[in-house]
Sequence to fold (75 residues):
Amino acid sequence: MTGAPAISGGPVAPCSSGKRRYATRRAARAALIQVRARRRAAVRRAPRRASRRPMERALYACPACCGWHLTTSRP
Ligand SMILES: [Zn+2]
Fold:
């Protein structure tokens, strides 16, 4: 009775990938735009430190949780 993702639209357990889960492509896209804007601001403040971390650049549908995640790798 564990491990089955709830697709009922209610609160959902985090994905086994450990990544933050978005219910819809739209939500993931909005989050991606927000994350990237925050990253650009951080890079402006501390270019050396911020540019060392990879930037989220894409979103993908996750077969494990039927949700969407952001990824730092190219699609
Ligand atoms: Zn997932």
The radius of gyration is 14 Å. The longest helix spans residues 25-45.
